[in-house]
Amino acid sequence: MRFVRRRLTAVVASLSIAGGIAGLPAHADTGSPPSTPAPTSDPDATPTATREPTDEPTGEPTDEPTGQPTEQPTTDPTTPPPEEPTSEPPSEPTEDPTPTEDPTPDPTPTPDPTPTPPPPEPPPEDPTEDPTEDPTVPPPEEPTDDPTSEPPSEPSEPPSEPSEPPSEPSEPPSEPTGDPTPTQPPTGDPGTGPTDEPPPQPTTPPDGDMQIPDELPDDPDEAYQAALDGAQTVAVAEAQRLLARVAGELDSAQRSYAEARAAADAARASAKKARRELTIAEQEVARTEREIAELRARTERTRQELGAVAREAYKGTGMATLGVVLSAETPAQLTDRYVGMRTLMRSGDSTLGEMAVHEAELRDALSRLEGQRDRRKRRADEAAEAREAKEQAAQQARTAHETVDEKSALVTSALQAAEDARLQDYRRYMRLLDESTAIGERLASLDYGPGYGTGSFVLPGTGAPTSQYGPRLHPILGYVKVHTGLDFGRGDGAIHAADSGTVVEATWNDAYGYMVIVDHGTWRGQRLTTMYAHQSSLGVTVGQRVRKGQVIGEVGSTGYSTGPHLHFEVRLDGRHTDPAPWISDAPSPS
After folding, report:
1. What angle, rounded to 10 degrees, do the helices at 318-326 and 331-444 form?
2. Burial of 150 (0-12, 13-18, 19+ CB in 10 A)
3. Which helix H or strand E contains 323, and what residues bound it?
4. How far apart are CA 322 and CA 13, in angstroms?
5. What spans are recorded as compositionally biased (Low complexity) (predicted)?
6. Mean of the pLDDT values across residues 508-532?
7. How confident is the model at residue 265 (pLDDT cuts 50, 70, 90)?
8. First to last CA, the chain
9. Strand positions, DSSP E, 431-590
10. Which residue from 42, 245, 407, 531 has the least number of CB within 10 angstroms?
């Protein structure tokens, strides 16, 4: 017994030197408790975890599991499992899923129905897309687009231009059939004179929209000149010039709007991307902050455990440790207490190691958090800039849309003005025809005196011919107009008598302005007269005899005229005819 006591004293001393702990029970070992033996699965037990799949479409139920997986089967382990029903083999999935009673195929071949494919599995989410948000931290709400930032709806189409051309005259206007040969002066043979057919009549302009070319000239001045040729009023040409100008402005505004709309779409996409990247950065910061909080809590718990161990070690003395050991009643009890104290010491060392690891992880997380916060700030700045750019682009798109609306309204107004001018021109043209008819009737009933004409002409004006005789479809006005004479440009401004004769009219006419009509006598049995219209003033009087080439007036723009010119007509028995054969070889006035 004395030997045992000395042995115990040596053991207690060694424990005290190692920093023994007093007052701790022998069962304070913090090691892992003894593990309970894992249940071993019986290989003979009936498997119930999964069922054997079957492709049998007949819908026969399979055997229900016994529901007692731990019960030992009474059969021999080598006994095979219950046989599957063999009455009907499972059909292939490509066969008709509906079983038939008669296995004999129908003599009439019928196509097998296409088996319904199983629903496709949803594709895996792309990891490069928006990351999965942490369920514990709600992500910031996605800011909805400012309703005012959306570009306005597409502008209404500009007023459509009439697409149907004016109706052509059912019958082309007839022209005189007895014109003299252009290369020879009239010979005075009455047998070859023109027939007594009535002059051609113009077609009535179609009711409705004005006929506008499919493509207006880019240059408004070109549109002006195109409309001016053959028009009765300058308003038609002015309306066409305005229409060409505003149509060009509308086209430019529409292009600007398309560019602004594309820029707004791009800015909206950029802002959306910036918001998404900002959300990702905020989620990264939130995850790291949670990780840091967990690491700090874990470190604090470890620090508290170490503090408890240190306090116990500080309070413990060699005598207290000796008392713990000496209180053991058996050698086995002594050994258990010794092992427990050693285990507790090793646990303290392990806790110190864990605390060092936690502190290292915490430092790394704090470093990552700093970088993530910097990245979040950059993303926030980028999102703010993108949002501002989006708002500016949207405002530019709205402004461009308003410009398109304004130009569309101007085009509509210009179209209406052009239509009004066209109708006014048509009314003036009909008045001009009435005046021409009245002149012809007066000339046909006139009691002429002796004629003084020679039958050969000189050019009545020095300007170049600008508008020929005859009917034609006006490209702007949209109806057939009959030009009853031949127009000459201003030239030197003097108007000359084409042949010798007597002035039978020298007056003002609402349609022809200041005009002069000269009688040249009889040609081929018909009375030949010439008319000189739109003069700026009258240089002769009625009854005055004039010589061939004599100046009888000045070129002007009176009456229904769009500019200074000479309107020259040749009439036979009061009916107008083409002047071209009469002046094709005519010399200039001397």
Report:
1. 110
2. middle
3. helix 318-326
4. 7
5. 28-50, 64-77
6. 94
7. very high
8. 171
9. 465-467, 470-473, 480-483, 486-488, 494-496, 501-509, 513-523, 526-538, 545-546, 551-555, 566-572, 575-577
10. 42
Confidence (pLDDT) at 499 = 96
Query: Cα separation of 190 and 193, whole Å?
Result: 6
Radius of gyration of the chain (CA): 57
Residue with token string 């530019």: 396
Which residue in 7, 496, 565, 464 sits closest to 234, CA to CA?
A: 565
* Helix, strand, coil % over all residues of the chain, rounded to 5: 40, 10, 50
What does the pLDDT look like over 354-397, one tens digit per residue? 778 878 888 888 888 888 889 889 889 999 999 999 999 999 99
CB atoms within 10 A of CB 24: 17
Alpha carbon distance 509, 520 (integer Å): 22
- Structure tokens, 569: 């007509």
CB 555 within 8 A of CB 536: yes
How far apart, in Å, are the Cα atoms of 536 and each of 374, 439, 508, 533, 558? Answer: 87, 20, 10, 9, 6
Report how far residue 380's alpha carbon sits from residue 386's, in angstroms, rounded to the nearest whole number: 10
Q: List the helix and strand counts (H, then E) for the chain.
A: 6, 12
Report how far residue 139's alpha carbon sits from residue 144's, in angstroms, rounded to the nearest whole number. 14
293 vs 198: which has the higher pLDDT: 293
Tokens 């009087």 correspond to: 541
**Domain ranges, ordered by start, for the chain:** 250-428, 446-590
Beta bridge partner(s), residue 577 = 570
Instruction: Tell me the torsion sign for CA atoms 257, 262, 268, 271.
Output: negative
HEC sequence for 363-421: HHHHHHHHHHHHHHHHHHHHHHHHHHHHHHHHHHHHHHHHHHHHHHHHHHHHHHHHHHH
Q: What is the mean pLDDT of residues 339-361?
A: 69
Contact assessment for residue 513 and residue 556, using Cβ atoms and an 8 Å cutoff? yes
User: What residue has token string 């003299």?
Assistant: 180
Q: Which residues pair with 568 in a beta bridge?
A: 486, 532
Nearest by Cα to 551 from 562, 561, 540, 563: 540
With 70 as the cut, is the pLDDT of residue 227 above it? no
Q: What's the gap between Cα 489 and its chain centre? A: 51
List the one residue out of 555, 567, 240, 543 whose CA is nearest residue 436.
Answer: 567
> Stretch 36-43: mean pLDDT, rounded?
42
Q: Are 440 and 571 in contact (CB under 8 A)?
A: yes
Q: Is the pLDDT of residue 252 over 80?
A: yes
Structure tokens at 454: 């020679």
For residue 555, list its beta bridge partners.
535
Q: Which two tokens stand for residue 279?
A: 């959300």
Angle ∠(74,76,77) on CA atoms, nearest 5: 110
The CATH fold of domain 446-590:
Glucose Permease (Domain IIA) (2.70.70)
- Asked if 202 contacts 433 with a C-beta cutoff of 8 angstroms, the reply is yes
Distance from C-alpha of 459 to C-alpha of 492, rounded to nearest angstrom: 13
pLDDT for residue 20 is more than 50: no
